[in-house]
Amino acid sequence: MSLPFRLGFESPSYLWLLLALPLLWALGWSSLRVLGAWRRVIALAVRTVVWTAVVAALAGVQLVWTSDRVTVMYVLDQSESIPSAKRTAMLDYVIESVRRHRNATRGDRAGIIVFGRDAMIEIPPYDDDVPPIRRLESLLDRTDATNMETALNLAQASMPEDTARRIVIVTDGNENIGEARRIGSRIVDAGIGIDVVPVQKQAGGEVLVEKIDLPSNIRKGQPFEARIVVDRQGATEVASEQPVSGRLRVKQKVAGQESLLLEQTVELQPGKNVFPLQHSIEQPAAYTYEAEFIADDEASDGLTQNNQATGYTYVRGKGRVLLIHGPEDLGDFELLLSTLRNANIEVTPMATTALFGSLAELQPYDAVILAGVARVSGETTQTITSFSDEQIEMLVRNTQQLGAGLLMIGGPEALGAGGWTGTELEKAMPVDFQIKNTKVQGVGALALIMHASEMAQGNYWQKQISIAAIEQLGGADYAGVVHWTMNGDKWLWGGSKGMLEVGPNRRAMLAAVGRMTPGDMPEFDPAMRMAVTGLVRTDASVKHLIIISDGDPGAPTNSVIQAFKDNSITISTVAVESHGLSDSRRLQDIARATGGKYYAVKSGRALPGIFQREARRVTRPLIYEPPGGVIPQITFPHPVVDGIESLPRISGFVMTQVKDSPLVQVVAQSPKPSTPENATVLATWTYGLGRAAVLTTDAGSRWTKAWAGWPGYEKFHSQLVRWLMRPTGDTGQFSLATQVRDDKVDVIVTALAEDDSFLNFLEIGGSVLDPDLQPLLLEMEQTAPGRYEGSFPIDRAGTYFVNVIPGEGKAPLSAGVTVPYSEEFRYRETNGTLIAQLASLRPDGGSEGEVTEPLEAELTDALLARDTFRGGLPPARRIRDAWPWFVLAACVLFFTDVLVRRVAIRFGFLKVWWKRIAGEPQPEPTAITRLDQLKQSKEDATKQRRGNSRFEPESLDMGGSQSADIEGLDRSSDQPGQTGSSSTQLGSSSSSSDGGQSYTERLLEAKRRAKKQ
Predict the structure, then answer these.
(1) Quick check: 961 pLDDT over 60?
(2) Of the given ranges (473-487, 602-616, 660-674, 855-869), which has the lowest mean pLDDT?
(3) Residue 907: Cβ within 10 Å count
(4) Please, how many CA atoms are within 13 Å of residue 569, restricted to the half-sphere of its CB?
């Protein structure tokens, strides 16, 4: 009978200590002679076991289980460089291979991992056939790269260690992220075999538009040459001899406008083809160039994803400022525009109806001014426009990462009153748009009635618009939502009260909205009655109700409408997918009767902007217009107010809350209200690499009319804008170059002094924004005299914006690095070298892997005949440390050794017990008198003391009383019944001839009596 496990040792060199066992026996055989033969043998045997257990524990004894089961993980390459037909064939191959070769008797397991840029487990390893699935459920986020290293790591981590393991990789071998060869060596060191099923690419031609080579910075009017590099790859000698013809098209994009620069027919020779383009630019701006090749014969170009390339350049001019204004408000800023232009600051107006679409469009401007604009503007459904989250992110990153200035000018629809509360733009300002001070009166209350059940994705859009509205409200504002349930109309929160303060409840409100499922409301009257009651209970100064509906609920009663009028509560209605003219008119009548607005929308995408605009109605209390106006006080000696002793009177501003940051500088402040943190007129701070400021009053149209004739108007505004602007100047002594290499971009800066000597030991800082406007780390280090280098990783196609600050006060160096397409589309041939290297790796105790027949769109019998569950793998081992148990056993047996040596156990009682159990007669005990027992004890004691001399004194002179006592003792011992002393005698060497007591006993008795006297 064999054990299911065997012993192994982590440090077998300690086993040499077992050679000490003969010495242990030699020493113990002589020293334990007194124990007798059997006890000595038992003691030595126990000692042997104890020593063996201690040595085994020192050697790290382990229990090792072995198994012949096999686990195979199929790792499938789902990157875009592999045709979709072969990606589908991979799944069929796995299903059929497992069905044919998996040994169900021994419990073999199989699993699937798919990978592109990342990897996911499609089917974890389990002991059954792969089900006949037709599509992969693991949808990879990005398949524009091949990261085999991540897939192999995941495969190793997901395979059980109690079976033999093999990884079967189905790939073309064209990895462009990671190092599969390195991770493969680690995998085989863990005892895992690797097989590879190659995916052969179709033979054919391929054309790649590699790049557009442009100068990174071009001066205004400077001619330059752009070069378009096109690489033509031929599959065969015959095909390479024939040129590939097609059209080459070059476009230029600037400020959202696109123009065609070149379109001509070209012929591509094998290898790289370079086409020059002479060009010049007359206006400073950021320009994007796009080159595209379109082959006349599609068969000569296998992939179209690599037929486009883009380039970016920036034409620098004098300092420029972008002023963003409302579509109807440009006239309100004519004075500001003319003032800045008179100060040699070039200003470009941009209406909110034609906003920028990319970060590149913001690069020509050294500062951006938001001139009294709201986040959402427009009066009707057709004219409503808004800043998207992406555009807000661009404004913030343009300041934080690229160093441009950012100024927000106040107005009745600006700052917190313009719906900017809670946005990323608020974080970039030196003030918060929400008022946190409870002493500041004037709050708003907003109620929402949700009913849009017949609209496409009605519940989804109702959640989105509720969230958009709640996020617009300040902390002191009130909010409530009424929706219809099977039990009638109910408040979403707040119980019967309904309206709650937003500040402490905002997070709970947003969570409740996420769980909301409004039903088909039968009539408006009950819900509107609840809404007016809840709004009246609040102490808000502005109260507003928004109704979204398809218009089919019954009309409200006149008494309910009158209740809204009597309490100055306005109602705005939004009609979605209304059932006809009558239903729309019902919603129009409700809005018209209460002074609200009516909107009709056909798509849910228009709803968030409408609700953001309507939510601004309850933020009107942020507008502060004290009677008679106020004169702002200059509170900080800032460069913006150099040479300015005082500011003119203003009639109003938007209240804000100063950020709790030492970087914030409050330059001007109003004496009213009484809370200074809410009375800011002008505040500045440094935000990232740029500067930001907020002017809470306007620029002269409403609140600063007295400034129009003020002599310091031009000085104040020009100094403010110049302080914000990104430093400008000649960067001729500094040059910035970028180079795309593998999966990163190298950034190189050369710094020269005016005499062309190298500038060393500069503190050069830099920042990078990826195509998603996320910042990337860029650290610049000096690598040579006047040369500074850094790099950052790239993992997606798009434009990366690089901004390098060569020193304090120096103009920044800017560049755009464009990655036209992923490296996935640069390879066309199967990487047979990497495939062979992976398969040649041999695990210790096993054999090398195999490179099977190529995978085709139709599976071949030769490929399916390959047994992926075959042997040739290191035996599966499951190891468990056993040395703690050996230490415990040694401790227990050590006490057994002590017991054997120190305690003699007689086993005669077992014979007696057996006879009693068997019923055998017991011998009668011999009657022994007490005196006989004492005599026998005396004789035994005498034998034990043989050889010892006995002391018996001839005479004792102890005095009269003591002699008398002794004589009395002798007499008393002769009296009948006085046998106590004799009965306690235990072996004295001499005894009295007449009393039976020993001399010592009589002497002790006399001594005791003498003490009593």
Answers:
(1) no
(2) 602-616
(3) 6
(4) 29
CA-to-CA distance for 828 and 588, rounded, in angstroms? Answer: 63
Tell me how far apart the 2 most distant CA atoms of the chain are, in Å: 155
**779 CB neighbour count, 10 Å cutoff:** 12
Average pLDDT over residues 136-148: 80
What does DSSP say about strands 478-485 and 500-501: parallel, antiparallel, or unpaired? antiparallel
Nearest-CA neighbor of 686 among 633, 622, 639, 632?
A: 639
- On whether the CB atoms of residues 811 and 730 are closer than 8 A, the answer is yes
Instruction: State pTM to two decimals.
Output: 0.61
Beta strand pairing call for 308-316 and 598-601: unpaired
| Winning range, highest mean pLDDT, from 101-115, 194-208, 470-484, 554-568 | 101-115
Which tokens in the block code for residue 247?
């059209």
3-class DSSP state for residue 668?
Answer: strand
Number of H helices, E strands in the chain: 24, 45
The helix (run of H) or strand (run of E) holding residue 658 is strand 657-658
Beta bridge pairs of residue 656? none
CB 599 within 8 A of CB 573: yes
Residue linked to tokens 């002798």: 970
Do 654 and 415 form a contact (C-beta atoms < 8 A)?
yes
**How far is Cα 842 from Cα 278, in angstroms, rounded to an integer?**
58
CB-based contact 24:51 (threshold 8 Å): yes
CA torsion sign, 361 to 364 to 370 to 373? negative
Q: How many residues are recorded in the chain?
A: 1013
At position 433, the amino acid (one-letter code) is F
| 3-state secondary structure at position 913 | helix
Q: How far apart are CA 376 and CA 399, in angstroms?
A: 22
The DSSP result for 714-783, as a single string, is HHHHHHHHHHHSPP-S--TTEEEEEEEETTEEEEEEEEB-TTSPBP-S---EEEEE-TTS-EE--B-EEE
Which run of H or E residues covers position 31? Answer: helix 21-31
User: How many other CB atoms are found less than 10 A from the CB of residue 228?
Assistant: 25
Beta strands in 138-243 (DSSP E): 164-171, 192-198, 206-213, 217-219, 223-233
Helix axis angle, 458-472 to 502-514, nearest 10°: 170
Alpha-helix residue ranges (DSSP H) falling in 580-682: 581-594, 607-615
Cα R_g (the chain), whole angstroms: 49
* 3-class DSSP state of 155: helix
Q: How confident is the model at residue 739 (pLDDT cuts 50, 70, 90)?
A: confident
Tokens describing residue 329 = 């408000």
